[in-house]
Design goal:
Length: 312
Protein backbone atom coordinates (compact mmCIF):
# COMPACT_ATOMS: atom_id res chain seq x y z
CA UNK A 1 0.00 0.00 0.00
CA UNK A 2 1.33 3.46 -0.78
CA UNK A 3 1.78 5.81 2.13
CA UNK A 4 2.15 9.53 2.78
CA UNK A 5 5.61 11.07 2.43
CA UNK A 6 5.11 12.97 5.73
CA UNK A 7 4.37 12.07 9.38
CA UNK A 8 2.29 15.21 10.01
CA UNK A 9 -0.10 17.35 7.98
CA UNK A 10 1.32 20.78 8.78
CA UNK A 11 0.53 22.52 5.50
CA UNK A 12 -0.02 21.83 1.81
CA UNK A 13 3.43 23.34 1.27
CA UNK A 14 5.03 20.25 2.82
CA UNK A 15 3.20 17.53 0.88
CA UNK A 16 3.50 16.26 -2.69
CA UNK A 17 0.97 15.92 -5.48
CA UNK A 18 1.17 12.14 -4.95
CA UNK A 19 0.24 12.63 -1.27
CA UNK A 20 -2.80 14.66 -2.33
CA UNK A 21 -3.90 11.98 -4.83
CA UNK A 22 -3.48 9.28 -2.16
CA UNK A 23 -5.62 11.31 0.28
CA UNK A 24 -8.29 11.70 -2.46
CA UNK A 25 -8.31 7.98 -3.29
CA UNK A 26 -8.62 7.13 0.42
CA UNK A 27 -11.40 9.73 0.81
CA UNK A 28 -13.30 8.09 -2.10
CA UNK A 29 -13.39 4.91 -0.03
CA UNK A 30 -14.50 6.70 3.16
CA UNK A 31 -17.14 8.67 1.27
CA UNK A 32 -18.74 5.35 0.40
CA UNK A 33 -18.50 4.32 4.10
CA UNK A 34 -20.26 7.44 5.42
CA UNK A 35 -23.14 6.89 3.01
CA UNK A 36 -23.84 3.42 4.41
CA UNK A 37 -26.47 2.77 7.08
CA UNK A 38 -23.67 1.80 9.54
CA UNK A 39 -21.19 4.65 9.17
CA UNK A 40 -18.42 3.44 11.47
CA UNK A 41 -15.29 1.48 10.66
CA UNK A 42 -12.86 0.10 13.27
CA UNK A 43 -9.77 1.47 11.47
CA UNK A 44 -8.47 3.63 14.38
CA UNK A 45 -9.85 1.64 17.28
CA UNK A 46 -6.55 1.75 19.24
CA UNK A 47 -5.65 5.37 18.41
CA UNK A 48 -6.26 8.30 20.77
CA UNK A 49 -6.65 11.73 19.19
CA UNK A 50 -6.63 15.06 21.04
CA UNK A 51 -8.42 18.00 19.44
CA UNK A 52 -6.67 21.15 20.66
CA UNK A 53 -8.46 24.31 19.66
CA UNK A 54 -6.75 27.48 20.87
CA UNK A 55 -9.09 29.49 18.64
CA UNK A 56 -12.84 29.28 18.19
CA UNK A 57 -14.09 26.86 15.59
CA UNK A 58 -17.40 25.17 15.03
CA UNK A 59 -17.39 23.54 11.62
CA UNK A 60 -13.76 22.37 11.49
CA UNK A 61 -13.88 20.99 15.05
CA UNK A 62 -17.16 19.16 14.46
CA UNK A 63 -15.91 17.79 11.14
CA UNK A 64 -12.72 16.43 12.71
CA UNK A 65 -14.62 15.00 15.67
CA UNK A 66 -17.09 13.26 13.40
CA UNK A 67 -14.25 11.90 11.24
CA UNK A 68 -12.48 10.56 14.35
CA UNK A 69 -15.62 8.90 15.68
CA UNK A 70 -16.45 7.37 12.29
CA UNK A 71 -12.99 5.75 12.44
CA UNK A 72 -13.66 4.51 16.03
CA UNK A 73 -10.77 6.52 17.56
CA UNK A 74 -10.79 7.62 21.21
CA UNK A 75 -11.24 11.39 21.26
CA UNK A 76 -10.22 14.05 23.80
CA UNK A 77 -11.50 17.58 23.20
CA UNK A 78 -9.61 20.53 24.57
CA UNK A 79 -10.75 24.11 24.26
CA UNK A 80 -8.18 26.71 25.28
CA UNK A 81 -10.84 29.23 26.25
CA UNK A 82 -11.65 27.15 29.34
CA UNK A 83 -8.17 25.81 30.11
CA UNK A 84 -4.93 26.51 31.95
CA UNK A 85 -3.69 28.41 28.90
CA UNK A 86 -5.70 31.27 30.36
CA UNK A 87 -3.51 30.92 33.47
CA UNK A 88 -0.32 31.30 31.44
CA UNK A 89 0.57 27.69 30.66
CA UNK A 90 2.78 27.39 27.56
CA UNK A 91 1.83 25.52 24.41
CA UNK A 92 4.46 22.81 25.05
CA UNK A 93 3.35 22.32 28.68
CA UNK A 94 -0.27 21.99 27.62
CA UNK A 95 0.53 19.49 24.93
CA UNK A 96 2.98 17.48 27.07
CA UNK A 97 0.32 17.16 29.74
CA UNK A 98 -2.08 15.82 27.15
CA UNK A 99 0.54 13.50 25.65
CA UNK A 100 1.34 12.05 29.07
CA UNK A 101 -2.18 10.65 28.79
CA UNK A 102 -0.79 8.59 25.86
CA UNK A 103 -2.23 10.48 22.92
CA UNK A 104 -1.15 9.34 19.42
CA UNK A 105 -2.34 12.29 17.34
CA UNK A 106 -3.03 15.97 17.89
CA UNK A 107 -5.40 18.03 15.75
CA UNK A 108 -4.58 21.65 16.50
CA UNK A 109 -5.90 25.08 15.61
CA UNK A 110 -3.79 27.94 16.90
CA UNK A 111 -3.74 31.73 16.32
CA UNK A 112 0.04 31.77 15.70
CA UNK A 113 1.38 30.91 12.24
CA UNK A 114 3.81 27.99 12.45
CA UNK A 115 2.48 26.64 15.77
CA UNK A 116 2.07 23.14 14.29
CA UNK A 117 5.59 23.09 12.83
CA UNK A 118 7.01 24.28 16.18
CA UNK A 119 5.13 21.56 18.03
CA UNK A 120 6.11 18.80 15.61
CA UNK A 121 9.76 19.42 16.52
CA UNK A 122 9.12 19.04 20.25
CA UNK A 123 6.61 16.26 20.72
CA UNK A 124 6.22 12.68 19.59
CA UNK A 125 2.63 12.59 18.37
CA UNK A 126 1.48 13.04 14.78
CA UNK A 127 0.11 16.56 14.21
CA UNK A 128 -2.66 17.77 11.93
CA UNK A 129 -2.85 21.52 11.44
CA UNK A 130 -6.51 22.61 11.65
CA UNK A 131 -5.54 26.23 10.94
CA UNK A 132 -2.60 28.31 12.17
CA UNK A 133 -3.34 32.03 12.21
CA UNK A 134 -3.62 33.51 8.72
CA UNK A 135 -1.09 30.95 7.47
CA UNK A 136 -2.46 27.54 6.37
CA UNK A 137 -5.58 25.39 6.67
CA UNK A 138 -4.56 22.24 4.78
CA UNK A 139 -7.64 20.05 5.25
CA UNK A 140 -9.88 22.86 3.97
CA UNK A 141 -7.81 23.14 0.79
CA UNK A 142 -7.87 19.36 0.36
CA UNK A 143 -11.66 19.18 0.70
CA UNK A 144 -12.06 22.17 -1.65
CA UNK A 145 -9.91 20.53 -4.35
CA UNK A 146 -11.60 17.17 -3.76
CA UNK A 147 -15.00 18.85 -4.24
CA UNK A 148 -13.82 20.40 -7.55
CA UNK A 149 -12.55 16.98 -8.69
CA UNK A 150 -15.90 15.41 -7.78
CA UNK A 151 -17.90 18.09 -9.62
CA UNK A 152 -15.70 18.64 -12.71
CA UNK A 153 -13.87 15.30 -12.99
CA UNK A 154 -10.39 16.75 -12.52
CA UNK A 155 -8.63 19.77 -11.05
CA UNK A 156 -5.86 19.92 -13.68
CA UNK A 157 -6.42 22.58 -16.34
CA UNK A 158 -9.29 24.28 -14.48
CA UNK A 159 -9.40 28.04 -13.89
CA UNK A 160 -10.12 28.83 -10.24
CA UNK A 161 -10.61 32.30 -8.81
CA UNK A 162 -10.44 32.92 -5.07
CA UNK A 163 -12.45 36.04 -4.24
CA UNK A 164 -12.41 38.26 -1.17
CA UNK A 165 -10.19 38.71 1.86
CA UNK A 166 -7.00 37.04 0.59
CA UNK A 167 -4.79 38.95 3.06
CA UNK A 168 -6.21 37.38 6.23
CA UNK A 169 -7.14 33.99 4.79
CA UNK A 170 -5.35 30.75 5.59
CA UNK A 171 -7.85 29.04 3.27
CA UNK A 172 -6.60 31.12 0.32
CA UNK A 173 -2.93 30.26 0.87
CA UNK A 174 -3.54 26.51 1.30
CA UNK A 175 -5.87 26.51 -1.72
CA UNK A 176 -3.28 28.26 -3.90
CA UNK A 177 -0.66 25.62 -2.98
CA UNK A 178 -3.04 22.67 -3.48
CA UNK A 179 -4.62 23.90 -6.73
CA UNK A 180 -1.22 24.56 -8.27
CA UNK A 181 0.13 21.16 -7.23
CA UNK A 182 -2.89 19.61 -8.97
CA UNK A 183 -2.37 21.63 -12.17
CA UNK A 184 -5.07 24.33 -11.92
CA UNK A 185 -4.62 28.00 -12.90
CA UNK A 186 -5.32 30.35 -10.00
CA UNK A 187 -6.35 34.00 -9.85
CA UNK A 188 -7.18 36.04 -6.77
CA UNK A 189 -9.75 38.81 -6.82
CA UNK A 190 -10.64 41.44 -4.23
CA UNK A 191 -9.94 45.02 -3.17
CA UNK A 192 -6.22 45.86 -3.51
CA UNK A 193 -6.10 46.46 0.25
CA UNK A 194 -7.07 42.81 0.88
CA UNK A 195 -4.54 41.27 -1.52
CA UNK A 196 -1.04 40.55 -0.13
CA UNK A 197 1.66 42.67 -1.77
CA UNK A 198 3.84 40.03 -3.39
CA UNK A 199 1.24 37.34 -4.07
CA UNK A 200 2.24 37.12 -7.75
CA UNK A 201 5.46 35.46 -6.54
CA UNK A 202 3.30 32.43 -5.72
CA UNK A 203 2.42 32.15 -9.42
CA UNK A 204 -1.11 33.54 -9.17
CA UNK A 205 -2.46 36.55 -11.06
CA UNK A 206 -4.47 39.37 -9.50
CA UNK A 207 -7.80 40.66 -10.89
CA UNK A 208 -9.61 43.54 -9.22
CA UNK A 209 -12.70 43.35 -11.44
CA UNK A 210 -15.04 40.59 -10.27
CA UNK A 211 -16.93 40.26 -13.57
CA UNK A 212 -13.69 39.75 -15.51
CA UNK A 213 -12.60 37.12 -12.99
CA UNK A 214 -15.95 35.31 -13.27
CA UNK A 215 -15.81 35.33 -17.07
CA UNK A 216 -12.37 33.70 -16.87
CA UNK A 217 -13.03 31.03 -14.24
CA UNK A 218 -14.57 27.56 -14.08
CA UNK A 219 -14.80 27.76 -10.27
CA UNK A 220 -15.26 30.76 -7.94
CA UNK A 221 -14.31 30.23 -4.29
CA UNK A 222 -15.94 33.06 -2.33
CA UNK A 223 -14.18 33.90 0.96
CA UNK A 224 -15.74 35.83 3.77
CA UNK A 225 -14.35 39.13 4.99
CA UNK A 226 -12.55 38.28 8.24
CA UNK A 227 -13.55 41.23 10.36
CA UNK A 228 -12.17 39.55 13.49
CA UNK A 229 -8.62 39.69 12.04
CA UNK A 230 -8.81 43.35 11.03
CA UNK A 231 -7.51 46.10 13.24
CA UNK A 232 -8.08 48.80 10.60
CA UNK A 233 -10.70 49.35 7.91
CA UNK A 234 -9.66 47.87 4.54
CA UNK A 235 -12.60 49.20 2.51
CA UNK A 236 -15.08 52.07 2.97
CA UNK A 237 -18.33 50.19 3.72
CA UNK A 238 -19.67 46.67 3.63
CA UNK A 239 -22.28 47.84 1.13
CA UNK A 240 -19.60 49.06 -1.24
CA UNK A 241 -17.64 45.81 -0.86
CA UNK A 242 -20.78 43.82 -1.69
CA UNK A 243 -21.52 45.91 -4.79
CA UNK A 244 -18.02 45.35 -6.15
CA UNK A 245 -17.07 41.88 -4.92
CA UNK A 246 -20.28 40.20 -3.75
CA UNK A 247 -21.71 37.41 -5.89
CA UNK A 248 -25.42 37.60 -6.64
CA UNK A 249 -27.82 35.88 -9.03
CA UNK A 250 -27.74 38.75 -11.57
CA UNK A 251 -23.94 38.55 -11.90
CA UNK A 252 -24.06 34.76 -12.26
CA UNK A 253 -26.80 34.87 -14.87
CA UNK A 254 -25.00 37.50 -16.93
CA UNK A 255 -22.18 34.99 -17.64
CA UNK A 256 -22.36 32.99 -20.86
CA UNK A 257 -21.45 29.77 -19.03
CA UNK A 258 -22.23 27.99 -15.78
CA UNK A 259 -19.51 28.21 -13.14
CA UNK A 260 -19.16 26.27 -9.90
CA UNK A 261 -19.55 28.36 -6.72
CA UNK A 262 -17.78 27.39 -3.48
CA UNK A 263 -17.49 28.86 0.00
CA UNK A 264 -15.44 27.55 2.94
CA UNK A 265 -18.00 28.90 5.46
CA UNK A 266 -19.18 30.43 7.65
CA UNK A 267 -21.12 32.47 5.09
CA UNK A 268 -21.89 36.15 5.58
CA UNK A 269 -25.10 35.95 3.55
CA UNK A 270 -25.73 39.11 1.61
CA UNK A 271 -22.09 40.26 1.87
CA UNK A 272 -19.78 38.05 -0.22
CA UNK A 273 -22.61 35.87 -1.53
CA UNK A 274 -26.40 36.20 -1.62
CA UNK A 275 -28.72 33.46 -0.36
CA UNK A 276 -30.12 32.72 -3.82
CA UNK A 277 -26.58 31.94 -5.03
CA UNK A 278 -25.54 30.01 -1.90
CA UNK A 279 -28.63 27.81 -2.17
CA UNK A 280 -28.52 27.43 -5.97
CA UNK A 281 -27.63 24.36 -8.01
CA UNK A 282 -24.31 25.94 -9.01
CA UNK A 283 -23.12 26.09 -5.39
CA UNK A 284 -21.40 23.01 -3.94
CA UNK A 285 -21.13 24.42 -0.41
CA UNK A 286 -22.95 21.52 1.30
CA UNK A 287 -20.93 19.00 -0.75
CA UNK A 288 -17.81 20.67 0.64
CA UNK A 289 -19.07 20.07 4.19
CA UNK A 290 -19.81 16.39 3.51
CA UNK A 291 -16.48 15.93 1.72
CA UNK A 292 -14.73 17.53 4.69
CA UNK A 293 -15.56 14.52 6.85
CA UNK A 294 -14.31 12.03 4.22
CA UNK A 295 -11.08 14.00 3.62
CA UNK A 296 -10.36 14.30 7.35
CA UNK A 297 -11.03 10.57 7.80
CA UNK A 298 -8.53 9.90 5.00
CA UNK A 299 -5.84 12.17 6.51
CA UNK A 300 -6.21 10.69 10.01
CA UNK A 301 -6.26 7.13 8.69
CA UNK A 302 -3.14 7.60 6.52
CA UNK A 303 -1.18 9.33 9.29
CA UNK A 304 -2.23 6.70 11.85
CA UNK A 305 -1.10 3.89 9.58
CA UNK A 306 2.37 5.48 9.61
CA UNK A 307 2.37 5.61 13.45
CA UNK A 308 1.46 1.93 13.62
CA UNK A 309 4.13 1.00 11.07
CA UNK A 310 6.79 2.98 12.97
CA UNK A 311 5.84 1.28 16.21
CA UNK A 312 5.54 -2.15 14.64
Amino acid sequence: MSELSVNHLLGIKYITERDIQLIFETADHFKEVINRPIKKVPSLRDITIANLFFENSTRTRLSFELAEKRLSADVINFSAASSSVKKGETLIDTVNNILSMKVDMVVMRHPNPGAGVFLSKHIDASIVNAGDGAHEHPTQALLDCYSIREKLGDVAGKNVVIVGDILHSRVALSNIFALQKLGADVKVCGPRTLIPKHIEKLGVSVETNLMKALEWCDVANMLRVQNERMDISYFPTTREYTQQFGLNKAKLESLDKEIVVMHPGPINRGVEITSDVADSGQAIILDQVQNGVAIRMAVLYLLASKIERDEG
